[in-house]
Amino acid sequence: QVQLQESGPGLVKPSQTLSLTCTVSGGSITTNYYYWSWLRQPPGEGLEWIGYIGYSGSTYYGPSLKSRTSISRDTSKNQFTLQLSSVTPEDTAVYYCARDDRGFAQYDYWGQGTQVTVSS
């Protein structure tokens, strides 16, 4: 059974960089053909896809946040990390990590989600 768990600070100040880590157990992040994604849901809004890092280490980001987003991984720890720079209160959301089967937005495993609030 694959499990994903997000971790990171729940409060970030404006203009700082938000950093979240997703720890994966029960499966390797280098296994073909899975893509390890970050998504978020601002209060009162729908789910927004942020980007992913693939089994080979390739990355792809959504257009709305692309200029501020970086996703990396540590294969020795079976973790992948989201960094979102220059945050504003509009980045306040519940952030999720998820596994995407073959990169077609077919998410089969999710983390429980973590609330991140951007406030001074």
Q: In words, what does this structure look like?
A:
Strands 2, 4, 5, 6, 9, 10 and 11 form a 7-stranded mixed β-sheet that branches. Strands 1-3-8-7 form a 4-stranded antiparallel β-sheet, with no helix packed on it. It is an all-beta fold and 120 residues long. A hairpin with a 4-residue loop joins β5 (48-54) and β6. The protein is globular, with a radius of gyration of 13 Å. The chain has no helices and 11 strands.
Rg value: 13 Å
- The tally of beta strands, per DSSP, is 11
Poorly predicted tracts of residues? none
Gross geometry: globular
Strand content: over 45%
Largest sheet: 7 strands, mixed
How would you state the average pLDDT, rounded?
97
- N-to-C terminal Cα separation, in Å? 39 Å
Order of helices and strands: EEEEEEEEEEE
What structural category characterises the helix and strand content?
Answer: mainly beta
Percent in helix: under 10%
How many helical elements?
A: 0
Give me the secondary-structure topology.
Layout: E1 3-7, E2 11-12, E3 18-25, E4 34-41, E5 48-54, E6 59-61, E7 69-74, E8 79-84, E9 93-101, E10 107-110, E11 114-118
Parallel strand pairs: 2-11
Antiparallel strand pairs: 1-3, 3-8, 4-5, 4-9, 5-6, 7-8, 9-10, 9-11
